[in-house]
Structures are given as structure tokens and as C-alpha cells.
Amino acid sequence: MGLRDSLVKATPKPLDGFSPTPMTDVEEYPIANFQFTIEIDKCDVAFFQKVSGIVVERGIDSLTEGGFNEYTYEFPREFSYNHITFEVGLTSSDFFYNWMMFGKEQGFALGKDFVLKQRYPDKPADKPKSWKFDGAFPVKWQISSLDVGNSKNIVIEKLELSFNFFTLEKP
């Protein structure tokens, strides 16, 4: 058993009272042209205009052959994944802030599997692509500057997540 396995087993079970809030409970949507949704526990919890950081990278080991300086050999290693960041106009939903703060007093973060679904704004039933993320937990939550002098701008909420891996799901 590796260090990660022992940490996962030592993480306390989620506390009661933390569950996704369906988007039907949110009073307003900042912009009507949604492109992405997040589904947690079979519930769409947010719509997003921007998602960044979906990157998978394979590590390599380089080997230089003694006395041969023209090139090095490269061998594949494990995969690594960047953090993923979601941006949305601030709504009355406090789900992402609550997810970020959950476990603060106990010293752990709540990991959740989720599905990122791409969708067509004019055909909400069609789901052209989706990605399943395993063991995601928040590492950063922020909102854009609150500036009275520029009050016509929409306040943007950002959530950055770490995760174990993701898979592309077939429609």
C-alpha cells in the first residue's frame, strides 16, 4: 500500500449536510449562453462559460548512451494532470464556496467525482462530449474584483480543482 492509498483510507467520511444544489434552486443565471455543465451525484450543479487547464502530460526519462552525443533516448513514464479551472458569472448559489471550505476545521478536503458536460446552448438535450474526473477537490476559490467604478461588469467566480485523472466519455 502506497502513501496515497493510506491517506485516502485515513480521510474522514464526508459530514452530513454537504450535497449538490440543483441549478433549479438558483434564482438567476448571469448569461444565457451556457456551454458547459458540471454534474455531481447525477445533479447539474453549475453552468460555465469558460473551462481551462484540461491537460494530460506524459513524463519521460532520458538516457544518454555513453560516447554517443548525437541524441538521447526517451522512455515514457507516468501521466500527470494540471489543475482545472472553471469560470462563471456569480450567482446566488454558494455550492463552490461551501465545497472549498468543507473540511477546513477537520483538516481535509472533500473529494468528489464529477462529469464535465459540453452542451449546445440551442439544443440542451444534445451532449456532444463529456469528461469524467476522479477524486476532484478544490484548491482555490476566488471572485473577480468588486469595483464600484466599473459596476456594469459581471462578477466572475473561479474554482480551481485538483483531481486524480480524467477520462473522455462517449456520447
Strand and helix layout:
Elements: H1 3-10, E1 36-40, E2 43-48, E3 50-52, E4 56-63, E5 73-81, E6 84-89, H2 95-101, E7 112-118, E8 129-143, E9 156-162, E10 165-169
Antiparallel strand pairs: 1-2, 1-7, 3-6, 4-5, 6-9, 7-8, 8-9, 8-10
Describe this structure in words.
This protein has 171 residues and is mainly beta. The chain has one domain: Pnp Oxidase, Chain A (Roll), CATH 2.30.110. 9% of the residues lie in helices and 42% in strands. The protein is built from 2 helices and 10 strands, in the order H-E-E-E-E-E-E-H-E-E-E-E. It has helices at residues 3-10, 95-101, and strands at residues 36-40, 43-48, 50-52, 56-63, 73-81, 84-89, 112-118, 129-143, 156-162, 165-169. The strands form 2 sheets. Strands 1, 2, 3, 6, 7, 8, 9 and 10 form an 8-stranded antiparallel beta sheet that branches. It is elongated and about 65 Å long. The two termini are 36 Å apart. The relative contact order is 0.20.
